[in-house]
Design brief:
This protein has 1 helix and 6 strands. By secondary structure, it is mainly β. Strands 1, 2, 3, 4, 5 and 6 form a 6-stranded antiparallel beta sheet that branches. A hairpin with a 2-residue loop joins strand 3 and strand 4.
Length: 123
């Protein structure tokens, strides 16, 4: 028995339209991504040069179950954020210790799901 139930199908989801209604508009977005996690394999997106500092990571997913967003700076894990895949947003404050490459891995054992995330400077 699982705590999360399966949501609607995301097979033919219009991801840009979903993201536009699900993810808040924010000033100063440093990195963002969205897409579909088709299977249990993590999707990793790398960003070349992200400044050190405090940030707010906002994540969302839809399709049932849960998705995880693993954030690493220069190969060192900073945090793992999770979101219930029901279209709601979750936020986490993170601190990037040094300027350099950043990677965010999106994964779900409940695939397929759609996801979106954005990183903005903390206010």
């Amino acid at each position: 028995m699982t705590a999360c139930s399966s949501g609607g199908s995301v097979s033919n989801a219009d991801i840009p339209a979903w993201k536009a209604t699900t993810m808040p508009s924010a000033a100063g977005v440093v990195v963002e991504d969205s897409g579909k996690i088709p299977n249990r394999d993590p999707l990793v997106k790398s960003f070349a040069n992200v400044a050190a500092g405090s940030y707010t990571l906002t994540v969302a997913c839809d399709g049932g179950g849960k998705a995880f967003f693993d954030v690493s700076s220069a190969g060192t894990q900073i945090t793992e954020a999770g979101a219930a895949c029901n279209g709601s947003r979750e936020t986490s404050r993170i601190k990037i210790p040094s300027t350099g490459p950043l990677s965010i891995s999106a994964s779900s054992v409940d695939a397929p799901v759609i996801y979106a995330y954005q990183l903005v400077p903390a206010s």
